[in-house]
């Protein structure tokens, strides 16, 4: 990235071989993850993160094999499969540098692609479910239920014994949510969609990752005494909630500020979500993959809302092999 802008501003290039400094390792990247927020950082319009200094390599999460360890790093990491954050940048590359403290071993039975899809979104989903106190009998509405995070929220809530309604846009996405076992699906492109969620009772819990008009409509139908958990604003605006109205209806609003301290709990939640995956309780929905040189197309798919589930970059390894082909579902 040499300038902020649309997906076309992200182009392939060459960079020097990375070195592992003290406390760091070099990872031979097999898979790189991405989020909707990263597309907004690329445009220079995200309000929650500082702009990276130009030029920069996008991507903040990778899965692969540790090839080099720096000083003061346990040599036992060399050759291990890991998933790790790289900070806000540096992930869309054949090799990436990560801090030893950020390395997370990928358990047997979980592929590197699954680990990349689960580590960040899965940890966040696990944290949101914990903070909202989901229990058997809850009536849960998940917005953007066909996305990488939404599909995991649906599965975790079902596993907890809750009833789940998934909201998404269009028949393809609704079919994905239905396939996860959701009790109901609803298309929020249709007028009056919110009133049809659990009908007269309304949801007792809402996971709001969209904000704007959709988030507001979901809040309006939230049951008295319910919980309204905010974790995103893909519409561009966080849901506007009248505090007095929330108090009058006894609704607990768990604001987007909850995310600020999630990082401190990420390892615990990652351990839990990857254990769920190894046991078959949850599975990531990896809807499409792209090779590294088509990173712009991957960003475009996420940004224009055509992507299903999680979108990943499959990166060529040091041996010259590619883990998959462009556009392939995993």
Kindly describe this structure.
Helix content is 27%, strand content 21%. The chain has 330 residues and is α/β, with parallel strands linked by helices. The chain has two domains: 7-105 and 285-314, Quinone Oxidoreductase, Chain A, domain 1 (Alpha-Beta Complex), CATH 3.90.180; 131-262, NAD(P)-binding Rossmann-like Domain (Rossmann fold, 3-Layer(aba) Sandwich). Helix 2 (112-132) crosses helix 7 (266-279). It is globular, with a radius of gyration of 20 Å.
What's this, in brief?
With 330 residues, the chain is α/β, with parallel strands linked by helices.
Characteristic terms for this protein:
330 residues; 27% helix; Rossmann fold; 13 strands; six-stranded parallel sheet; globular; 8 helices; alpha/beta; Quinone Oxidoreductase, Chain A, domain 1; single chain; seven-stranded mixed sheet
CATH architecture of the largest domain: 3-Layer(aba) Sandwich
Under the CATH scheme, which class of the largest domain?
Alpha Beta
Q: Examine the coordinates and then state which fold CATH places here, giving the name of the CATH topology of the largest domain.
A: Rossmann fold
Cα shape: globular
List the helices and strands and how they pair.
Blueprint: E1 24-33, H1 36-43, E2 61-69, E3 81-85, E4 95-99, E5 103-105, H2 112-132, E6 139-142, H3 148-159, E7 163-168, H4 171-179, E8 184-187, E9 205-208, H5 212-221, E10 227-230, H6 243-249, E11 252-254, H7 266-279, E12 286-291, H8 295-303, E13 310-314
Parallel strand pairs: 6-7, 6-9, 7-8, 9-10, 10-11, 12-13
Antiparallel strand pairs: 1-2, 1-4, 1-13, 2-3, 3-5
Helix pairs in contact: 1-8, 2-3, 2-7
């Amino acid at each position: 990235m040499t300038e902020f802008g649309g997906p076309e501003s992200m182009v392939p290039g060459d960079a020097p071989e990375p070195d592992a400094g003290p406390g760091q390792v070099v990872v031979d990247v097999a898979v790189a993850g991405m989020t909707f927020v990263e597309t907004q950082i690329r445009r220079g319009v995200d309000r929650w993160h500082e702009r990276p200094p130009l030029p920069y390599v996008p991507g903040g999460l990778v899965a692969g094999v540790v090839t080099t360890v720096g000083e003061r790093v346990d040599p036992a990491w060399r050759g291990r499969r890991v998933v790790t954050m790289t900070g806000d940048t540096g992930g869309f590359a054949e090799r990436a540098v990560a801090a030893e403290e950020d390395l997370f071993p990928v358990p047997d039975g979980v592929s590197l692609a699954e680990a990349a899809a689960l580590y960040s979104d899965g940890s966040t989903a696990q944290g949101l479910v914990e903070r909202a106190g989901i229990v058997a009998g809850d009536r849960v509405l998940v917005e953007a239920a066909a996305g990488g995070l939404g599909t995991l929220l649906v599965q975790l809530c079902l596993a907890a014994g809750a009833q789940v309604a998934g909201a998404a846009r269009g028949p393809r996405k609704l079919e994905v949510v239905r396939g996860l076992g959701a009790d109901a699906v609803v298309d929020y492109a249709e007028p009056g969609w919110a009133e049809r969620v659990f009908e007269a009772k309304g949801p007792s819990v809402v996971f709001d990752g969209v904000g704007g008009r959709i988030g507001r409509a979901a809040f309006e139908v939230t049951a008295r005494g319910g919980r309204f958990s905010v974790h995103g604003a893909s519409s561009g605006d966080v849901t506007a909630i009248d505090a007095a109205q929330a108090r009058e209806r006894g609704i607990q609003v768990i604001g987007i500020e909850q995310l600020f301290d999630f990082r401190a709990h990420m390892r615990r939640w990652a351990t839990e979500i990857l254990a769920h995956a190894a046991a078959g309780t949850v599975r990531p929905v990896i809807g499409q993959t792209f090779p590294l040189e088509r990173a712009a197309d991957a960003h475009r798919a996420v940004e224009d809302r055509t992507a299903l589930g999680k979108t990943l970059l499959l990166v060529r390894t040091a041996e010259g092999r590619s883990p998959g082909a462009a556009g392939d579902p995993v």
